[in-house]
Design goal:
By secondary structure, this protein is mostly beta strands. The chain has no helices and 33 strands. The strands form four sheets. A twelve-stranded mixed β-sheet has the order 3-6-9-12-15-18-21-24-27-30-32-33, with no helix packed on it. It has a ten-stranded parallel β-sheet with strand order 2-5-8-11-14-17-20-23-26-29, with no helix packed on it. Strands 1-4-7-10-13-16-19-22 form an eight-stranded parallel β-sheet, with no helix packed on it. A hairpin with a 2-residue loop joins strand 32 and strand 33. It is globular, with a radius of gyration of 20 Å.
Length: about 250
């Protein structure tokens, strides 16, 4: 018995390994040399590059759910999901329709990448991490286990986000209608680093090569090349980032 459900309009490249109980929808394109695990669902129109590994129980190209009281238009049309060449997608990961994942990206087990998210080449999205809708994530970023990137955020290249970092985009905490015009995610400039369990409030900018220490609560913008730590509750200036720690002084490829 054939356990695979593959739409006749799908294009499957050469040298492909397909698991059992998979579903591949209309007009899906999968490049050569890819490996698709068991119980994987790939929704309509999704494009997957060459030599991509997708592990068991993962879903690619899922349509987002829209609540009855959501500000998101219910008739919104999203582009199909795209997964670049050489990516690794872990077990039970979910990548929504409208996501655009670059080349050689690793999205670990149980991670979620929402609609209208762009992820640059060689970035790592850690186990259980969540990237909400309408975010831009740069190249060579690392978002570690259970980190949470709120909607409408922008992370430039080489940004590091430690485990359990929390970010927010709503200063009104989900109440007055004024909030609908004021949603604003965080901005982390090139080479910024955010330590474990730090909390970044809506619209705050972490400057290039800045470091937010573990557990810090960031209530205002962090200047470039500075370190902020907790002094009681607020993150405060501690000192400049040492020269040898600056991104410009690392022997890394662009």
């Amino acid at each position: 018995m054939d356990t695979k459900v593959i739409d006749g309009t799908a294009t499957i490249g050469s040298d492909i390994r397909l698991g059992e109980f998979i579903v591949i929808g209309k007009s899906v394109r999968i490049g050569q040399g890819s490996v698709i695990g068991h119980h994987v669902v790939i929704h309509e129109g999704t494009e997957i590059g060459d030599n991509v590994r997708i592990d068991d129980y993962t879903v690619i190209g899922k349509e987002p759910m829209i609540a009855a009281n959501s500000i998101i238009p219910k008739d919104r049309r999203l582009k199909p999901a795209t997964i670049g060449a050489g990516c690794i997608i872990g077990t039970s990961a979910i990548i929504y329709r409208g996501a655009d994942v670059g080349n050689h990206v690793l999205i670990a087990d149980l991670a979620t990448v929402r609609e209208e998210v762009t992820i640059g080449d060689y970035t790592i999205i850690g186990r259980g991490a969540a990237v909400e809708n309408s975010c831009t994530i740069g190249r060579y970023c690392k978002l570690e286990t259970n980190s949470y990137i709120t909607a409408y955020s922008e992370l430039a290249d080489r940004v590091f986000v430690a485990p359990c970092v929390a970010t927010s985009n709503d200063n009104f905490v989900g109440r007055t209608k004024e909030r609908f015009n004021c949603f604003k995610g965080i901005i982390a400039e090139k080479g910024a680093r955010i330590g474990v369990n730090a909390t970044i409030l809506p619209g705050k900018r972490i400057g290039a090569d800045a470091l937010v220490a573990g557990g810090a609560l960031v209530t205002k913008d962090v200047p470039s090349k500075t370190i902020v730590v907790n002094r009681g509750v607020r993150a405060e200036f501690l000192k400049n980032v040492p020269d040898e720690q600056l991104l410009e002084n690392q022997d890394w490829p662009e």
